[in-house]
Structure formats: structure tokens, C-alpha cells
Design a protein that fits this description.
about 15% strand, Beta-lactamase, two-stranded antiparallel ribbon, alpha+beta, 7-stranded antiparallel sheet, globular, 14 helices, single chain
Length: about 425
């Protein structure tokens, strides 16, 4: 499956990025240069008229009372059929959003980190059933919080080891804010692993925190599991995690604008990130990557949510997965490994679904739709994808040979009048545009 049109668009996007920002800002957000698509919608099996519904929805939700702006990208049969920018990239709403602007993708990082782990599985350097303690001895004698308080806890031996598969499926039993996790969560807060200087320091602190449940007995979505997985990558490869990603994934896929830090010469393209303020108006969110767009999320390269990226870059990553692990001569994973990533791994649970809904399980690095009727959007069984905390999302449909990406920059905080979550509606608007 060829993606050369995507490569051509990426080259053009880079040329645009080299222009002074004032020149870029003059481009209409509704008609980004060098054009919103690499193939006519009809050639990809989409109705151009029906795609206008997606465009209207995005324009309505990036008006003066909505999100600052956003970018959507839709691809089918290896060619981008729709690529639009909407609204603005700055909180003052003076700089029109460009299709090559740079977003914090937060938990969409987890899928990239999962691919890194699976590359090492393919090389025979670990298996999904290996105990994590084989590589990180601090987890050898894992304890489970069994009662008491954070100040006087009762601990017991875990019924089994934490395995690599538990990290990738959020079933390690780590404190995750679920019912009964409160006291273990207090101990996690006291250990403060997220303030560590590097991934080794994260593991050193985090391994002292008791589990909230036995490994493999529940799904509890958390960020710590992927930070631990990233440290496993470092130990096995002998490289810092960010260096491994750069050499083994980002460079081969020509993801030229993706990384844990945005170079200073590209920071004019980093989008402001908002949250809802107490007065019902958008304000800049907290944290170094919000106050100084382009700065790292953590002191270490966070596999849980630290990457910045663009629609064009993440499109190359999605196309690689849709192709079965390869793109433009770069072989990242084998086809059967991608098959495994896209299968539900929660079959030991009853029902075998994650905590977010009865229609979706969890593969390696993303959700897997199990029941389309209960999902509520007319997708294909086996749809795979994930979202980021700041209103970014992607999904990959192998049955329809398509993927779509939507990028915005807003962290919901459930304040009165907060912006509506629109990811599921965007998905529905993509699918309704398919034609025979």
C-alpha cells in the first residue's frame, strides 16, 4: 500500500514551516497550504459533501466560545482524503491554526511506547510473559496493600509477578484511582515518582509503592505502567528511551516534528493548551509544557504522555500500523505483531472490557471495539485507537482501511461550562461520510 502522496505533503508542510510565522498566519485556517487532501474524497470512498458536516462541526466548536482551534486528518487506502485546520493556535485567537502546527499528544504517546516494547519482543530480547523483575529487580518482591492506612498499612505478597503484558494492558495492579485505591494512592503521592530526574529514578521511587490489586486481576488505567515499560526498554537496549524512539521509530518513519521537546526554531508552531478557568473562560493550563510551549512534560522522557507531534507525523505512524508494521521501506514491526496489538487482551476478566465502557476491551497500546452496537458509533468491530488528555484522538479501522486523527489542546476539568468532549462525534462524522 503506497503512501507516497503523504510523503509529498509532508515535504510541502516542512517548506511551509520554514516560512516566517507572520506569513504562515496569513493562510486561511479553512484552506491550509499546500491543500487539505492528497486525493479526492470520492477516490477514497468518501462523500465530499458529507465531509462538510465534519468541517462545519469543527468550525462550530472552534468559534469564540469553543476550543481555540484544531486539526483533523482522514486517510483511506493509503492516501489522505481530508486534512483541515480550524480556528487559532494561540489563546488570543490572533494566529490562525495551520495544518502543520505542533500539539502535545499526551497518552497517544503510549501507543508509540508500546511499539518500542514490541520491537524488542520481536528481537527475542523479552516476551510478554517475562516478569518485569527480570529487568528491574526492584519489582521482584511486589507487595499488595491489604488493609489499614497509608500510615499503618497491612501488606501481603502478590499472588504472582508483574509481567510485561501487565504493563502494556494496565493490569499490573498499580494504584489507579479505582475504588479501594485511596490509601495506596496516598503512598504513591508520597513517593512522588513523577518528579524524578530520569526513568531510573522513577522506577526507584515507584517500586516502593504497594500494589492496589494482584497483577492480572483488573484493568486500571494509569500512566506509571508505561513509564516502567520505558525503563525496561532502556535497560534492554542500553539507550535512553528518547534516543531509542528517535533511532528506531521516529527517524525511520520520518516523523520529523515528533519528540519530547520542540526545538526553539519550531516553537512558533506549538499550540497553546487551555483549561476552563473559574470565571468560565479559557485560561492557559498549568505545567511547564503549557506555560512554555515546547518544553518537556517531565524531566524524563515520559512514555505515558510526553510526546509532541503533528497530524502529518502521527499519520505516518498510523499508516505504518495500518500497513501491518511497515511504511515507505521502513520495517518497524511484523504483521502478526500488529495483529496481536489490535486484539483484546482482557480475556481473563469477566466481562473482558476496560473501565471506560462495556463495548471496548484493550489491546496493546489502545482500546479495541468489541461490540459496535453498544459502542454507539457505526464503526467496524476491532477498531483500534486511543486519545490524549488534552483533547487529541486517533483511530484505525483495518476493515475499512482507514484512520483518522483529531488534534486540539484543551484539558477538561469538569468546571461549569467546560467545553464538550467531541472525539466520539468526530468519529461518527468520519464514518457517516463513507459511501459505496
Amino acid at each position: 500500500m503506497s503512501s507516497s502522496p503523504l510523503a509529498a505533503l509532508l515535504v510541502a508542510a516542512l517548506a511551509l514551516a520554514a516560512l516566517p510565522h507572520a506569513a504562515r498566519a496569513n493562510a486561511s485556517p479553512a484552506n491550509p497550504r499546500p491543500g487539505p487532501a492528497t486525493a479526492p474524497a470520492r477516490d477514497g470512498g468518501f462523500s465530499a459533501e458529507r465531509l462538510q458536516r465534519l468541517h462545519r462541526f469543527m468550525r462550530d466548536n472552534t468559534d469564540a466560545k469553543g476550543y481555540l482551534g484544531g486539526v483533523t486528518l482522514v486517510s483511506r487506502h493509503g492516501r489522505i482524503v481530508d486534512w483541515k485546520a480550524y480556528g487559532y493556535r494561540d489563546i488570543a485567537r490572533t494566529q490562525p491554526m495551520q495544518h502543520d502546527d505542533i500539539f502535545r499528544i499526551y497518552s497517544m504517546t503510549k501507543t508509540v511506547a508500546t511499539v518500542a516494547v514490541m520491537m524488542l519482543v520481536e528481537e527475542g530480547k523479552l516476551t510478554l510473559d517475562d516478569p518485569v523483575s527480570r529487568f528491574l529487580p526492584a519489582f521482584k518482591d511486589a507487595k499488595v496493600f491489604a488493609g489499614g492506612t497509608a500510615d499503618s498499612p497491612t501488606l501481603r505478597e502478590a499472588k504472582g509477578p508483574i509481567r510485561i503484558r501487565h504493563l502494556l494492558t494496565h493490569t499490573a495492579g498499580f494504584p489507579a484511582g479505582l475504588d479501594g485505591d485511596d490509601e495506596a494512592g496516598v503512598l504513591l503521592e508520597r513517593a512522588d515518582p513523577y518528579s524524578a530526574q530520569d526513568l531510573k529514578g522513577f522506577v526507584d521511587r515507584f517500586a516502593s509503592v504497594p500494589l492496589a490489586a494482584d497483577p492480572g486481576t483488573r484493568f486500571g488505567y494509569d500512566g506509571a505502567a508505561m513509564e516502567v515499560a520505558a525503563r525496561v526498554v532502556e535497560v534492554i537496549s542500553g539507550q535512553p528511551f528518547d534516543a531509542f524512539l528517535q533511532a528506531r521509530i521516529l527517524d525511520p518513519l520520518k516523523m520529523v516534528d515528533t519528540g519530547f521537546r520542540v526545538p526553539h526554531e519550531k516553537r512558533s508552531r506549538a499550540v497553546d493548551i487551555t483549561t476552563m478557568g473559574d470565571e468560565g473562560k479559557l485560561v492557559i493550563a498549568d505545567g511547564p509544557s503549557a506555560l512554555l510551549p515546547g518544553e518537556p512534560l517531565r524531566r524524563y522522557p515520559s512514555a505515558a504522555g510526553g510526546l509532541y507531534s503533528t497530524a502529518a507525523d502521527y499519520a505516518r505512524f498510523c499508516q505504518m500500523l495500518l500497513n501491518g508494521g511497515a511504511l515507505d521501506g521502513a520495517s518497524i514491526l511484523g504483521r502478526k505483531t500488529v495483529d496481536m496489538m489490535f486484539r483484546n487482551h482482557l480475556t481473563m476478566l469477566d466481562p473482558p472490557v476496560n473501565q471506560f465502557g462495556p463495548a471496548e476491551g484493550f489491546g496493546l497500546g489502545g482500546y479495541v471495539v468489541l461490540d459496535v452496537a453498544r459502542w454507539g458509533v457505526a464503526v467496524s468491530p476491532g477498531l483500534y485507537g486511543w486519545s490524549g488528555a488534552a483533547s487529541t484522538t486517533y483511530f484505525i479501522d483495518r476493515e475499512e482501511d482507514l484512520y483518522a486523527i483529531a488534534l486540539m489542546q484543551h484539558i477538561p476539568n469538569e468546571q461549569p461550562g467546560d467545553l464538550p468532549r467531541v472525539g466520539r462525534k468526530i468519529m461518527a462524522l468520519v464514518y457517516q461520510a463513507l459511501v459505496p
